[in-house]
Amino acid sequence: MNLKIANMMVLVGSLLGPMQGYCGDTTTDTTGQYVDDATLTTMVKAAFAKDKGVKGRDISVRTDQGVVDLTGTVNSKSESDKATELATQVKSVKAVHNNLKINKH
Question: Would you say 68 and 95 are in contact if contact means Cβ atoms under 8 Å apart?
């Protein structure tokens, strides 16, 4: 009886062993880091939504390890600067990369 259980455990282990390589996390982000980055992105977008000068602009926000990347198009340098300022003021943002383009009419 014990031999059957042992054989079955070996069989199950040999079938599941190769899956371990596929299940490992290949990124450097931890679950907590991902949640923190997602939260920061949401907080920056919320700050933009509250501000009349930036609200409704075509600005994409991406956060990686606390560093916020802003991309998109705004109408003026002052709007671009304001977006950077708002993102910088969000607690836990480490840095802001402003890659916004100014729309030339």
Answer: yes
Report strand pairing: 67-74 vs 58-64. antiparallel
CATH of domain 29-102: 3.30.1340
* Whether pLDDT at 89 is above 90: yes
Using CA atoms, how far apart are residues 30 and 95, in angstroms rounded to an integer? 19
Q: Pick the residue with more confidence: 49 or 35? A: 49
d(CA 52, CA 69): 21
The pLDDT, as a whole number, for residue 99 is 97
The residue extents of the domains of the chain are: 29-102
13: Cα separation from own chain's centroid: 36
